[in-house]
Amino acid sequence: MSPNITPDRNLALELVRVTEAGALGAGKWVGRGDKNAADGAAVDAMRAMLDTVSMSGVVVIGEGEKDEAPMLYNGEQVGNGNGPAVDIAVDPLEGTRLCALAQPNSIAVLAVSERGTMFSPGSAFYMNKIAAGPGAIDVVDIDATPTENVNAVAKVKGVKVTDLNVVVLERPRHDDLIGELRQAGVRVTLIRDGDVAPAIAAAHPETGVDLLMGIGGTPEGVISAAALKCVGGGIVGKLWPANDEERQKLIAEGIDPDRALFTHDLVSGDDVFIAATGVTDGSLLRGVHYHGDTAVTDSIVMRSRSGTVRRIEGRHNFAKLTRFTGREYR
Fold first, then answer.
1. φ and ψ at 244, to 5 degrees?
2. How is the beta sheet containing 187-191 ordered, strand by strand?
3. CB-hemisphere CA count at 13 Å for 30?
4. What is the mean pLDDT of each run of 10 residues along the chain (330 residues)?
5. Helix, strand, or coil here: 79?
6. Contact 266, 274 (CB under 8 A)
7. How many CA atoms lie within 13 A of 142 on its CB side?
């Protein structure tokens, strides 16, 4: 396998099969209150399917270190070893608690780009970020106030500030942000977990999401950057060390916590693919829906080079899948 092989367009459909497998694995745990079981089922299903994909992949954004996460850990090699050399960012179940509580926007998601083009966040678990669609991303500033940013976005969109909808993770650390946004007049949609789907939704006018703002996971920021690189819009952020010890650790790793990070800093490749499949219904995707002995999945797959975005509805027969994979789907 040559490292100079360019990721082929057919890779996109292979990645959808991976996220479909993750969604189907987690789907049977929706609403059952066990987020660990749901996450484990998604990881197992995606890991098995990843090994069939024609690529030589290295997980850059995964489930943590090898000793902490035996499946899909940072640095793990995946794929069948043939085809292009790529970096991989994967979240088998983005929004584990959302899945456990049967709440919106839980997805299985996977991003791929050329080897060496994904930002490795080191010890930085959190990032202060703003995700926005085309046009809007050009006027936001991570160092500006929330009021300044929403006013700038409203102006470039040609709407009133009161027409904007901003998605924010419901966390105590965001109390001041939420208060200022509401004071500015925007509608604030609070979410429990899972900020990748709303970040992607910000680039799609039909979703009703204008911005994602606030402090969330750095891995999710990298995955969101990959998606927004494909569909337009983008993300800007700054690492958010939780304490001085974490800040000093980042500096020791050669990472500047005060540097603004843009879409191209997080994912610099030109051949970026992303696939996502809904686990629960949300602003971007429908969840897994069951009809007797079959399930219907809703997926999106994107490619940066062509700018193509495809929606894929999959219909899955449990009896045939079980014979084929040896896994139970209900």
1. -65, -35
2. 187-191, 165-169, 211-217, 126-132, 234-239, 261-262
3. 24
4. 57 92 96 95 92 92 62 86 92 94 94 94 91 96 98 97 97 97 97 91 90 95 94 94 92 94 95 96 93 95 90 92 73
5. coil
6. no
7. 20
The answer for residues whose C-beta is within 8 angstroms of residue 315's C-beta and 6 or more apart is 294, 295, 296
User: Would you say how long the chain is, in residues?
Assistant: 330
Distance CA 320, CA 206 (A): 36
* Residue 241 DSSP symbol: -
**Cα–Cα distance measured from residue 189 to residue 166, given in angstroms and rounded to the nearest whole number:** 6
pTM exceeds 0.85: yes
SS (H, E, C) 33-77: CCHHHHHHHHHHHHHHHHCCCCCEEEEEECCCCCCCCCCCCCCCE
Number of Cβ within 10 Å of residue 147's Cβ equals: 15
- Amino acid 154 reads A
The b-or-e profile of 254-269 (16+ CB within 10 A means b, else e) is: ebebeeebebeebbbb
d(CA 118, CA 135): 24
